[in-house]
UniProtKB/TrEMBL annotation, chains A, B, C:
Taxonomic placement: Bacteria, Pseudomonadati, Pseudomonadota, Gammaproteobacteria, Thiohalorhabdales
Residue runs in coiled coils: none
Pfam families per record: DUF190
InterPro entries hit by this protein: N-reg_PII-like_a/b, N-reg_PII/ATP_PRibTrfase_C, UPF0166
Entry's family note: Belongs to the UPF0166 family.
Name of protein: Uncharacterized protein
Length: 101, 101, 101
């Protein structure tokens, strides 16, 4: 296989943020990044220390969501610059990777 | 903890590809990689720009799937060489990591 | 965006391990790591080669679970030192990443 350098990104939301549709629309329609996948966690907690999880009735609608995508390092930097105002600190993780070309 | 160097791999499919069983069988029976986990995304899009997701009736059967595994860098290179013909460009992401020994 | 160096960690369990609650409680209450998310896989296998997956009746309660978290490299090293006795070899993967500050 031959490869292209990319930056992997994982953005941590919860369903209660109501940011998912806006973010997906932006990544798809405006930024046209190479690929995006959304995963729903079954439990989790963030900096607040508040646990989000299924099976705890009053937070059943606040499950963790992860929006994962990758693109060239330059594109990822541009894309994240465009959405940084939407997301608090500690919510956007990135690392270098390679994708088959 | 002591560690061994590995390569992490994430392969992006959709349920509509009908590749999952073949790929899992190959990784398990033939390649015997150290560990494989399959995750189902709740929404996503790839290079085509076509959105895959639950809640959109006619693509309810085409949810994203991610096949994740890791093994030594040498083994991963061999394994990916054996399956590269199955997968289009932009579907196999890898990066260096460490696993507890 | 400005960034902080972190170590990403993924811990591979199965539901049958019955370790999830203990591990989450430890990471949340004792270690207070920056954020934890739990994902349930839909199929998988580990070093034993035994396949875990939905749709196979007698192992329906042994689906793969991944506990993902990140924190500073120093904190992650401490945290993993505290739980290494709980987890067999080949179950804790880590790699360097960056998080928005």
């Amino acid at each position: 296989m031959t490869y292209t350098d990319v930056t992997m990104v994982r953005i941590y939301l919860t369903e209660g943020d109501r940011l998912l549709h806006r973010l997906l629309g932006h990544l798809h329609d405006t930024e046209r990044v190479m690929g995006v996948t959304v995963f729903r966690g079954t439990a989790g907690f963030g900096r607040s220390g508040k646990i989000h999880g299924e099976g705890i009735v009053d937070i059943a609608f606040d499950l963790p969501l992860v929006v994962e995508f990758f693109d060239t390092p330059e594109r990822v930097e541009e894309v994240l610059g465009g959405i940084e105002g939407w997301l608090g600190p500690g919510h956007v993780v990135q690392w270098p990777a390679r994708v088959n070309a």
